[in-house]
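User: Fold this; tokens only.

Assistant: Input:
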Amino acid sequence: MSEPRTRESTVQVSVDPQTAFTAFTDELDLWWVRGPINAYDSGRLVEMRCEPGVGGRILEVYEGDALELARITAWEPGERVAWKSSLDDVSIDVRFEPTAAGTLVRLEASLAESGEDRGGSSFVAVTPAWLGAWIRQRDTAPRQPRELARLGLTLGYARPAAAARWLVDAFGFESPSALPEGDDPLTDEEHGFPWIELHAGNASVVIEPLAGAADLTQFTHVPWVFVDDLGDHLTRAREQGAEIAQEITQTGFTSYVALDLEGRRWRFAQARPTQRG
């Protein structure tokens, strides 16, 4: 019999193991990031749910029905939870280990040599960033999922991995998941998906591989992003190598225009006080 293949990840959180276990299981819907690519059927998703106890289900809940993602195989509050995927051949084991700083949450995904991973191991990839962020704010954050804006944006780049890293560094986009470190072009084997999701506040920006050569001699779309401090944002963009196509100007609104690393135009405008994060 072939040995199972494994993937691991960890996240250190500053709460005790019981609280970390509760946040991971009972509050799954609060830390799972809503986005266009973060569920099997994102367009119908109402809730992410983890039912307690051995035999319980991990579900994507829709209006009127649900998709069973996994069945719980171990339930030891404060210590361990494990499950077997209902959609592929992945098993997940999550341990909650006490440390001087709180709890080390350790995840391991196992896949038999002959099995398939059709997304069952995604918990290993997303939990460190998503659960870690939720636990840091859970004492003050509202107990409701953070929904995305109705309008999102997809942009094609010749070098999507490099572009995503640059947009985070220069323009301050947030990345809900770890960005790929490998060279472009991305492949399913290296990254898992041929796209990368970024956020600007509650708006989603999806970076995809460019299907063909880009013609940037005529700009047909210019994304607008409202930022908390326009002057600081301009300084950061310039320091990271962005070409400034238009300095800060005021014409009913205050904004500047910058070019990204592949020459696309972006306009950044000063956010109103009620818009600021």
